[in-house]
Amino acid sequence: MYTNEQLNAIYASKIGIEFEFFANEGLDEVKRGLSQTLNKQIRVEEKAHSDFTPSDEIFKLEPDNSGGTGMIEMVTGPLPFVEAKLIIAKTLKWIRENGSTNERCSIHINVAFDGHKLGTPTNVSSLDIGKFVLNFDEDKVYEAFPNRKDSVYAKSIKFIVPLSGMTQPSPEKVSWKNYLFVSEKYYGVNFSKIPKNYIEFRYLGGKDYEKKYNTIMDLTEHFVLSLYETLTDPVYNEEDIKKLDAILENHRSVIESYRDYQTFKKNFPKIHLMVDLKTYDQIIETFYPKMREKLFDLLTKAGLTEALINYDADTGKMQIKNAELMKCFEINGVDIVDSKIQGNIINCDIFSSELINSSILESNLFGSTDVADSKIEDSYVSKNVICKDSYVFGIRGVFSGEMEGGIFRKGRATKLARFENAEIIEIEKI
To answer: Helix 4-11 vs helix 213-232: angle between axes, to the nearest 10 degrees?
Structure first.
């Protein structure tokens, strides 16, 4: 049961919805059917993410082939909660009767508030991200949509690390800006919308989501109340500070190791450092100050606990080998060899490794690398790289590998590329 305050917050919320789905008919028929069903004007756009901004009276319908050829996205403007509830019910019913969804389809819920109805400060642009992340009950979402837990498009926001290797401020000076939280959009919550005075919840979706109206509404209310409670109670309480203290304690050995190589070697005996493939303590101690920032990132953002790491003194680049990083928030600008990774990979050269449920951006994949259930953007994929059930896109990428299943959304491919049961939407042969 909700309190009166909670009910007021729910009914003062403004909800925007993005529905991804497939339809049995073309866009014009979909427009006609949904317009009649919802009693709204609907514009058909030529491309995904068009510049037109929907309103409460005019929605937009556009092709979105991220889930495969024929996938459509309908985007509403911000609606009063009661109306949004009705639009969700009618749209889900229409999809059940006239279309379908697959595992790549999502329903995104955008949440803001009508401050005039509440009479309390509820400006989302002032949201303390740290306070929200610490208190948001993410398990409630994954219990309802377990198939989304490992989705590359809706990863967990429960990732918090100190921003540097130096000791953090005392508890009375706690600030979310001293910690690193999720920032890019492919997480369960997209905080990049905060300057526009709303946040986007991306957790929900998957095959047959149109059959889960009650669950979707229950979680929408959960999203609204979670945001409202953080906005109206932004101060870090004793429980919040305990959570942050626990995070700092988990990283205590990392912070200690920032100071000197001997402490690092003591705290992380399974991580072996080299400089230009030399293992002498004297040379490693000399270069350690140049290595430690990247090491700190690998320990905190990538969850590194065991590996061989070589520092190339000429290029200043790290090379890691034999690492297993299954909860990798981010690994950026390193060479990766003979490793297994699940997470976010940016600007890396990768050799003979296994990548699972990962987001790979502006990287080069070489050798006998296997990729599964991942998103590969603006990257070079060489011969002998196998990509299974993945999504490849980006006009700056070049594909020479092999695709088994998945979607080649847009990009360039050489004559060496091989496609088996993969859906090719837009390809430039080079």
So the answer is: 110
| Nearest one of 222, 232, 234 to 10, comparing CA atoms | 222
Q: How far apart are CA 154 and CA 413, in angstroms?
A: 28
Tokens of 219: 């979680």
Looking at the DSSP bridge assignments, the partners of residue 95 are none
For 170, counting Cβ atoms within 10 Å of its Cβ (0-12 exposed, 13-18 middle, 19+ buried), the class is: exposed
Q: What is the CA radius of gyration of the chain?
A: 24
CB count within 10 Å of CB 218 equals: 12
Closest CA to 15 of 225, 192, 234, 231: 225
Give me the sign of the Cα torsion angle 143, 144, 147, 148: negative
**DSSP strand pairing (13-23 vs 79-80):** antiparallel
**Per-residue burial over 232-250, b = 16 or more CB atoms within 10 Å of its CB, e = otherwise:** eeeebeeebeeebeeebee
For residue 388 the two structure tokens come to 């299974």
pLDDT digits (tens, 9 = 90+) for 139-176: 999 999 988 876 666 778 877 776 655 444 444 445 55
pLDDT in tens, 35-86: 999 999 999 988 777 889 999 999 999 988 776 778 899 999 999 999 999 9
Residue 180 is inside which H or E element, if any? Answer: strand 179-180
Distance, in Å, from the CA atom of 63 to the CA atom of 22, rounded to the nearest integer, reads 10
DSSP characters for 299-357? HHTS---SEEEEEETTTTEEEEES-EEEEEEEEES-EEES-EEEEEEES-EEES-EEES
